[in-house]
Write a structure and sequence with these properties.
The complex is a heterotetramer of chains A (572), B (119), C (146) and D (263).
Chain A lengths: L2 E4 L2 E4 L3 H13 L5 E5 L15 E2 L8 H11 L6 H20 L14 E2 L9 E2 L5 H13 L5 E5 L1 E9 L2 E9 L5 E5 L2 E4 L20 H8 L4 E2 L4 E7 L10 H4 L3 E3 L6 H4 L13 H13 L4 E3 L2 E7 L5 H7 L1 H10 L9 E10 L2 E3 L11 E3 L4 E2 L11 H22 L6 H18 L9 H15 L3 E2 L1 H17 L14 H25 L8 E2 L7 H4 L1 E6 L6 E6 L13
Parallel strand pairs in A: 1-10, 2-3, 2-11, 3-7, 11-19, 18-20, 21-22
Antiparallel strand pairs in A: 4-6, 5-6, 8-9, 9-10, 12-18, 12-23, 13-17, 14-16, 15-16, 16-17, 23-24
Helix pairs in contact in A: 1-4, 1-11, 2-3, 3-11, 5-15, 9-10, 13-14, 13-15, 14-15
Chain C lengths: L27 H4 L1 H31 L2 H10 L3 H24 L16 H23 L5
Chain D lengths: L2 E10 L9 E10 L4 H12 L18 E4 L2 E4 L11 E5 L6 E3 L2 E2 L2 H9 L31 H8 L9 H5 L1 H5 L6 H11 L7 H9 L12 H5 L6 H21 L5 H4 L3
Parallel strand pairs in D: 1-5
Antiparallel strand pairs in D: 1-2, 3-4, 3-5, 6-7
Helix pairs in contact in D: 2-6, 6-9, 7-9
The chains are: A alpha/beta (572), B mainly alpha (119), C mainly alpha (146), D alpha+beta (263).
Bound molecules: flavin-adenine dinucleotide, iron/sulfur cluster, FE3-S4 cluster (F3S) and FE2/S2 (inorganic) cluster.
Chain lengths: 572, 119, 146, 263
C-alpha cells in the first residue's frame, strides 16, 4: 500500500527556486513542515551549471528604471511590466541576502560586490562569482537550507503526478527511485520548481535532468502553459556536446568572428548596433546562423560553427574571471582559449515559457504554485536577458514560498484516503511500465525522433511548414510512446522507468512548444518565423496559453500587462 | 576508551607533528654520526668519548635537544603505527592497539626524560 | 586487488531503505604506487619508534657512567645495529621529503591576524632548517665544533 | 571521427536478485573524443537499458557521475576514454555501500556534511540580523570582504560533492566515524570565511566524534579531486585549528559561549 507522509508545503525541485522557496517558508514559520522533493540530490540540480551571473542593480550609475527598461526591451515587450517592476526592486536585496549567507561573490578593490557587463544590459549589473555563479548560488542555498529542521528532504524521489482534491492541489505522488515504491506526499500547498525542458531538443546546454516534468505535471492537471513558443538559443555553445560557454566571455570583452576573422556583429547589420557582442541572445543567435548561411561559418566534425575569440583578453584575466571557461574548453573542445578562438554555435538554453502563474507564483489551480524556470511569471517575455533568470529564481522562489505558506494556513489538508487512492492509481501506472517487455518501441529511439523533430521544426529560424511538420511528428510519437518496451524489471533504482516517465513529459511539453509556435504568425524575440518576419503588435501582443485537452492542446490568450514602457521597435 | 582517545587527540597530534618536524631534523644528524659514522669508523670515536659526550649532554641546551631526540620520534612512531593498524581494518581493535602504542610511547618518554635528567 | 572496506564505511545512521552491497576498498589499494608510498610512510612509524628507543638506550647509558657508555657505543657497531641505522637514515630522509612537501599547505592561511609566508617560502625554509640542523648537530656530535 | 571498439566491464548488482555484485562485459564501438560517461550512456541507450548509473550535467560540475574507472575514482564525464586501453573496468565508487549497479549510497555523506554546519553562523545577539524575513534593504546590505579574504576560503568552496575523495581515502575505508575530506573542507571553508563566527561550534565537531585527527595525510583525496579543492590541505589546516581551539579552551574555558555561536 502506498505510504502517506504529511507536510504543510511540498516543494518539488531542489534548484535555486525550490531551495529559496523552502528557506523562505521554513524561516517565516518554524512550525510549518516543508517537504523538499527532488529527483536528484539538491546540489545536482541544473542551477549548478549556470556560469555567468545574476542581475541586480548595485552601482551608483544604475537604477531600477534602467534595469526595468532593459528587461522590457529584451522581452520584446511581452514581459508583464508589474512583474518586471517588482523583480528589479527585489533583485538587489535577494542577491545581498545570498551574500549574507556566504555566497562567494567576486569583489571590487574596496571589498564591495563586483558586477560585470551582460548581453542586453546597459550597465554593469550582473553579480558574479568568477564564472561559477550558479554553482556557488546553489551550494550556498543548499548549505544554508541544511540548518532548518523543518525542511524535510526527499532526495531522489521522482514526482510523477499532482494530487488534486476538491479542486485544489493537495500533494504529489512521488516515486521513491531508491525503492521503486510510490509515495503520497500530501499537504496544503505545492510549489513546482522543477526547472526547464531543454532536453526536448537534441543540442542544448541543459543537463540530463531538464525534462520539463513540472510543466507536464501542471499541464495534465489542467493548468495552462504560457508562452511556450519562446525557446532561447544561446549563441555560444560548444559544438557536439552543447556545453555552454558563458555570455560573461563577451561581457569581459570577447569577440565573435566568422571564417574571415571579421567581427560580424560589427561588420554587418544584425540589429544589435553599438552593443555588438553585448546584444541580446536572440539577435546574436540569428546573426550566427545567418553568417553560416552566407558561407562564412567554419566547418567542423560536428557541423558548422563560428569563433568566439578571447585571445586578446590575456591569460591573467581569463584565469581570474573565466577559469571555468578555460577548463571546459580544454576538456571538451581540446583547445585553450588563451591561445585559440573557441568554436561555438547557437544552442538551446532556456524556456521563456512555463506554467502560467501570477506575480505571487500562484497558478490557476488553487494550492499550486510555480517558480523558477518551470514557471512563466512573465518576466522574460519573448526573450530572457542573460543573468535575469538566476535572480528570478530567488525573487519569485521567495515570494512563492511566502504566499504558499499564507495559502496553506487558510486551507484544509486533504483526506488521507482520497489522496492515497490517487497515488495508488499512479503506482499502478508506473508498475505497468516497469519491465514492460511486450512493447515494441525503444525509449532512446523515440527521444531521438522527438529531438530531431523539434530541431528541424522549432529551431532558431522557423517556418509555418516546418512547425506544422513538427506538430504532426509529435502527435505520431505520442501515439507510439504507449507501446514502449522496457527491459528493466527491478524495483531498485530503475532509471529506465524514470527515463520513460520523463519521455512522456517531454513529449507533452514538446507538443505544446510546437503548437504554440505554429500559431504565432509573427516574429518576436526568440520566435523567428521566416514567413512573418516582423513583429505584429496589432494581432499578437498577448501571451499564448495552452491547455491540455483529450483531443489535443487547446490555445488561448492572456493580456500582457503594459505600463510605463510603450512597445516600440526593438533596436539597439 | 574511545572517548578518552578522542579527548587526548590534540596532544598526541601535537607530539606526533613535532616528531615529524623536529624529530626528523634531529634524527638525520644523530643517525649519520652516532648510528653510522662512528660505528663504521668514518668518524673519530674520540668525538663521542664519555667526557665530551657527557659535557655536551648535561648542559641545559644539550638536555633539551636530547629529550626531544628521544621523545618526539616515539610519538611519531606510535601514532603512525596506530594509523597503519587502522588502515588494515583496524577501527575496532583500535581501542586496544592505540593504548598499547601510546602506552609504550608514554613509558619510554618518561624514561627518556629521566635519562636526560640524571645526566 | 580490491578488498572489502569496513562494513560500515560511509553508511548512514538510519537503516537503508533497500539492501546494499557492502563497501569495497579501491582496487588500487595495493597496486598503486601512490598508495604504496603512503603505506611506507606510515610504516616508518616502526623505525621512528625504534630509533627513539635506541636513542633512549644510548642516553641512558650516558647517565650510567663511562663503562656502560663505552660498552653501549661498542654495541652500536654490530652489523645489525648498523643495518638498522642505514634503514633509519633512509626512512628519515624519506619522511622528511614527503612530510615537508605537504607541510606548507597544512598551514592555515591565517592564525588570528598572523599570516604565514607563501608556501614556496615555507618549503624552502624547511629545507634550510633541515640541512642546517643536520650539519650543526652532526658537526657537534662528530667533534668538529665545541 | 575514427571509431574503434572497447570492452567495458561493468559492475552489476540488483539487491532483489543478486547476493553479491557481479560484472558484465559489453563490447561497443567508441568515438575517439568520447568521455567514459558517453560510453556508459551508449550502452544504456543502445545495448542494455537495465544498467543504472547517475549523471546529469555532463560538464563536470554537478558531481553525480563519479565512478571507479580501472580502480581509480573518476568523474566519468570528464575522463577521456582515449586514456584507456581496450578493456575499461567501471565500478561504483569505492568505500560506499552500493545501492545498485553503479549507484552508491550517499546518505552517509549527507549526514556528515550536515554535521559540520556548512552555513554562515552569526552571533545571535547581533541587532537587526539579516534573515530571509528581514533581507538587506538594498545591494548595500552586504559585508565588506576583500579579495584577499575571499581568496582564503575560495578554493575550499569549489567542492562539487562528487565523493571521489571519499572513494580514495584509506581512512574513510576503515574508520566509519571519520567525517572525511569533503565535509571537513566545507566546514573549514566557513571557518575561513571572514563573514562567519561559527569557528567554536565547528571545532567542537572537528575535535569530537568523527575527529579530523583520524586523517593520516594520505593525500589521496587531493590527488583524485577533479576540482583542485585540495581537501588534504583543508583537513590538515582544520587539525591545526582544532588544536589551537583546544589549547585556548584550556586557558580560557568558554562559559557556554560556543552554544550561542558567539565569540
Ligand atoms: C548552462 C547554463 C548556464 C546558465 N547560466 C545562467 C546565468 O549565467 N545567469 C542566469 O541568470 N541564468 C543562467 N541559466 C539559467 C538558470 O540557471 C536556470 O534558469 C535556473 O537555474 C533554473 O533554476 P530552477 O531552480 O528553476 O531549476 P533547476 O535548477 O533546474 O532545478 C530543478 C529541480 O527540480 C527537480 N525536479 C525536476 N523534475 C522533477 C520531478 N519530476 N520530481 C522531483 N524533482 C524534480 C530537480 O531534481 C531539480 O532539483 C543558465 C542555464 C544553463 C543550463
Ligand atoms: S573535495 Fe574534490 S573530490 Fe572531494 S567531493 Fe569535493 S570536489 Fe569531489
Ligand atoms: S586521503 Fe584521507 S587520510 Fe587525510 S589527507 Fe585525504 S583525508
Ligand atoms: S555528469 Fe555532472 S559531474 Fe559528471
Amino acid at each position: 500500500m502506498v505510504e502517506v507522509s504529511r507536510h504543510d508545503i511540498i516543494i518539488v525541485g531542489g534548484g535555486a527556486a525550490g531551495l529559496r522557496a523552502a528557506i523562505a517558508a521554513a524561516e517565516a514559520d518554524p512550525s510549518a513542515s516543508i517537504a523538499l522533493v527532488s529527483k536528484v540530490y539538491p546540489m545536482r540540480s541544473h542551477t549548478v551549471s549556470a556560469e555567468g551571473g545574476a542581475a541586480g542593480v548595485a552601482r551608483e550609475d544604475d537604477n531600477f528604471e534602467m534595469h526595468g527598461q532593459d528587461t522590457v526591451k529584451g522581452s520584446d515587450f511581452l514581459g508583464d511590466q508589474d512583474v518586471i517592476q517588482y523583480f528589479v526592486e527585489q533583485a538587489p536585496k535577494e542577491l545581498a541576502l545570498l551574500e549574507n549567507w556566504g555566497c562567494p561573490w567576486s569583489r571590487n578593490d574596496d571589498g564591495s560586490v563586483a558586477t560585470r557587463a551582460f548581453g542586453g544590459m546597459t550597465v554593469k549589473r550582473t553579480w558574479y562569482a568568477a564564472d561559477k555563479v550558479g554553482f556557488h548560488m546553489l551550494h550556498t542555498l543548499f548549505q544554508h537550507s541544511m540548518q532548518f529542521e523543518n525542511i524535510v528532504r526527499y532526495d531522489e524521489y521522482f514526482v510523477s503526478k499532482l494530487l488534486v482534491e476538491d479542486g485544489a492541489c493537495r500533494g504529489v505522488a512521488a516515486l521513491d527511485i531508491r525503492t521503486g515504491d510510490m509515495h503520497a506526499i500530501v499537504g496544503r500547498a505545492v510549489i513546482l520548481a522543477t526547472g526547464g525542458a531543454g532536453k526536448i531538443f537534441p543540442f542544448t546546454t541543459n543537463g540530463m535532468i531538464k525534462t520539463g516534468d513540472g510543466m507536464a505535471l501542471a499541464y495534465r492537471a489542467g493548468v495552462p502553459l504560457k508562452d511556450m513558443e519562446f525557446v532561447q538559443y544561446h549563441p555560444t555553445g560548444l559544438p557536439g556536446t552543447g556545453i555552454l560557454i558563458t555570455e560573461a566571455t563577451r561581457g569581459e570583452g570577447g569577440h565573435l568572428k566568422n571564417s574571415e576573422g571579421e567581427r560580424f556583429l560589427v561588420e554587418y547589420d544584425y540589429g544589435v548596433g553599438q552593443k555588438a557582442e553585448l546584444g541580446p541572445r536572440d539577435m546574436i543567435s540569428r546573426a550566427s546562423i545567418l553568417e553560416m548561411e552566407a558561407g562564412r561559418g567554419i566547418q567542423g566534425s560536428y557541423g558548422e560553427y563560428v569563433h568566439l575569440d578571447l585571445t586578446h583578453l590575456g591569460e591573467e584575466k581569463i584565469m581570474s574571471r573565466l577559469p571555468m571557461v578555460r577548463e571546459l574548453c580544454k576538456i571538451y573542445a581540446g583547445m585553450d582559449p588563451v591561445h585559440q578562438p573557441i568554436p561555438v554555435r547557437p544552442v538551446v538554453h532556456y524556456m521563456m515559457g512555463g506554467v502560467d502563474t501570477d506575480i505571487d507564483g500562484a497558478t490557476t489551480l488553487p494550492g499550486l504554485y510555480a517558480a523558477g524556470e518551470v514557471a512563466c511569471v512573465s518576466l522574460n517575455g519573448a526573450n530572457r536577458l542573460g543573468s535575469n533568470s538566476l535572480t528570478e529564481c530567488l525573487v519569485f522562489g521567495a515570494r512563492a514560498g511566502l504566499h504558499s505558506l499564507e495559502f496553506a494556513k487558510g486551507s484544509a489538508a486533504g483526506s488521507d484516503d482520497g489522496l492515497r487512492a490517487q497515488a495508488e492509481e499512479e503506482a499502478a501506472r508506473v508498475d505497468a511500465l516497469r519491465g514492460r517487455k511486450k512493447g515494441g518501441e525503444k525509449i532512446a529511439a523515440i527521444r531521438h525522433e522527438m529531438t530531431s523533430a523539434m530541431e528541424s521544426g522549432c529551431g532558431v529560424f522557423r517556418r509555418q511548414e516546418s512547425m506544422g511538420a513538427a506538430v504532426e511528428a509529435l502527435v505520431q510519437l505520442k501515439g507510439r510512446v504507449s507501446d514502449l518496451r522496457l527491459e528493466d524489471d527491478s524495483k531498485v533504482f530503475n532509471t529506465e522507468v524514470i527515463a520513460a516517465l520523463e519521455l512522456h513529459n517531454m513529449l507533452d511539453v514538446a507538443e505544446v512548444v510546437a503548437v504554440s509556435a505554429h500559431h504565432r504568425k509573427e516574429s518576436r524575440g526568440a520566435h523567428t518565423c521566416r514567413d512573418f518576419e516582423r513583429r505584429d503588435d496589432q494581432n499578437y501582443l498577448y501571451h499564448t496559453l495552452c491547455y491540455h485537452d483529450p483531443s489535443g492542446p487547446r490555445l488561448d490568450k492572456k493580456d500582457v500587462t503594459l505600463g510605463r514602457w510603450e512597445p516600440v521597435e526593438r533596436k539597439y | 576508551m574511545r572517548h578518552f582517545l578522542l579527548r587526548i587527540e590534540p596532544v598526541i597530534w601535537l607530539l606526533f607533528g613535532q616528531g615529524l618536524l623536529i624529530g626528523t631534523m634531529l634524527l638525520t644528524g644523530w643517525v649519520l654520526v652516532v648510528g653510522i659514522g662512528v660505528p663504521l669508523g668514518l668518524i673519530d670515536p674520540a668525538a663521542l668519548s664519555f667526557d665530551r659526550a657527557h659535557a655536551l649532554g648535561s648542559n641545559i641546551i644539550g638536555r633539551l635537544v636530547l629529550a626531544a631526540l628521544i621523545v618526539l620520534p616515539l610519538w611519531k612512531g606510535a601514532h603512525h603505527l596506530r594509523h597503519l593498524s587502522i588502515d588494515f581494518r583496524g577501527a575496532e581493535r583500535d581501542v586496544v592497539v592505540a593504548p598499547i602504542l601510546y602506552g609504550i610511547a608514554t613509558v619510554a618518554s618518561l624514561l627518556g626524560v629521566l635519562a636526560v635528567a640524571r645526566l | 586487488m580490491a578488498g572489502p572496506a569496513h562494513p560500515k564505511a560511509m553508511t548512514p545512521s538510519k537503516p537503508g531503505r533497500t539492501r546494499t552491497a557492502p563497501p569495497q576498498m579501491p582496487a588500487s589499494w595495493w597496486s598503486h604506487p601512490r598508495i604504496r608510498t603512503y603505506l611506507l610512510f606510515d610504516a616508518t612509524g616502526l623505525v621512528y619508534l625504534l630509533l627513539g628507543l635506541v636513542a633512549l638506550r644510548v642516553i641512558w647509558a650516558l647517565g650510567a657512567g663511562p663503562e656502560v657508555w663505552d660498552a653501549t657505543l661498542a654495541s652500536l657497531s654490530s652489523p645489525l645495529y648498523v643495518a638498522f641505522h642505514v634503514i633509519g637514515l633512509v626512512s628519515v630522509i624519506f619522511v622528511g621529503v614527503r612530510f615537508f612537501s605537504f607541510f606548507p599547505k597544512s598551514q592555515p592561511p591565517r592564525i588570528g591576524p598572523a599570516k604565514p609566508p607563501p608556501q614556496p617560502v615555507i618549503l624552502a625554509g624547511l629545507y634550510v632548517a633541515w640541512i642546517g640542523v643536520t650539519v650543526l648537530f652532526g658537526l657537534i656530535l662528530a667533534g668538529r665544533i665545541f | 571521427m575514427s571509431e574503434s571498439k572497447k570492452t567495458f566491464v561493468i559492475t552489476r548488482f540488483d539487491p532483489d536478485k543478486d547476493e553479491v555484485p557481479k560484472t558484465q562485459e559489453y563490447e561497443i564501438p567508441v568515438h575517439e573524443d568520447w568521455k567514459v560517461l558517453d560510453a556508459i550512456n551508449f550502452i544504456k541507450d543502445e545495448v542494455d537499458p537495465t544498467i543504472s548509473h547517475r549523471w546529469s550535467c555532463r560538464m563536470a560540475v554537478c558531481g553525480s557521475c563519479g565512478m571507479m574507472v580501472n580502480g581509480e575514482p573518476k568523474l566519468t564525464c570528464k575522463t577521456r576514454l582515449s586514456d584507456y586501453g581496450d578493456r575499461v573496468i567501471v565500478e561504483p565508487l569505492a568505500n560506499f555501500p552500493v545501492i545498485r549497479d553503479l549507484v552508491s549510497e550517499l546518505d552517509g555523506f549527507m549526514e556528515k556534511f550536515q554535521a559540520v554546519k556548512p552555513w554562515v553562523i552569526r552571533a545571535k545577539e547581533e541587532a537587526g540580523a539579516v534573515s530571509a524575513s528581514n533581507p538587506p534593504k538594498s545591494s548595500k546590505g552586504t559585508f565588506v570582504q576583500s579579495a584577499a579574504e575571499l581568496a582564503e576560503f575560495k578554493q575550499f568552496s569549489l567542492c562539487i560533492n562528487c565523493m571521489l575523495c571519499y572513494a580514495a581515502c584509506p581512512v574513510v575505508a576503515n574508520e566509519p566515524e571519520f567525517l572525511g575530506p569533503a565535509a571537513i573542507a566545507l566546514g573549514h571553508r566557513y571557518n575561513l570565511d571572514s563573514r562567519d563566527q561559527g569557528l567554536d561550534e565547528r571545532n567542537e565537531v572537528f575535535r569530537g566524534e568523527g575527529t579530523v585527527f583520524s586523517c593520516s595525510f594520505a593525500n589521496e583525496c587531493s590527488e583524485v579531486c577533479p576540482k583542485n579543492v585540495d581537501p588534504a590541505a583543508a583537513v590538515n589546516q582544520a587539525k591545526f585549528g582544532a588544536v589551537i581551539d583546544w589549547a585556548t579552551s584550556l586557558v580560557l574555558p568558554r562559559p557556554g559561549a560556543s552554544k550561542e555561536g558567539g565569540k
